[in-house]
Amino acid sequence: MTKTTLTTRIRTLTRLTVTNRVSAVYLALVGGAMAVAAAGPLFTTGPDASLIWVWPALFTFPAFGFVAWLGEAGWGGEAPVWFLVGGIVLSALVQSLALGTVWHTLRGRRAHRTRLTTAN
């Protein structure tokens, strides 16, 4: 694999994962939920304060389901915070890539149909 090919593949992955509208909105939603969850302990001191982390995890399902399963298998329900937060971030990126790929595919089909319609 040449350097140019590798650079092209990295750019394509980045474009599909981060720089399209659908992925950007999704990542902003997950990032906002994580920011609110991280700031939660500053404003809430109740015993249920950590439940705010359910929202970022829910926004990243079904990919986070695999991370939760790994945490349960590896640590028996006591997975470290770094593992769960890293799992949320990784799950969000994987799902953002999937959303970007679907968006790109649908836009390509629409553009192809539009070209066929205008050509006739």
UniProtKB/TrEMBL annotation:
Its transmembrane ranges are 24-44, 51-70, 82-106
Swiss-Prot/TrEMBL keywords: Membrane, Transmembrane, Transmembrane helix
The record's listing under Pfam families reads: DUF7942
Q: What is this protein called?
A: Integral membrane protein
Query: What organism is listed for this UniProt entry?
Result: Streptomyces hyderabadensis
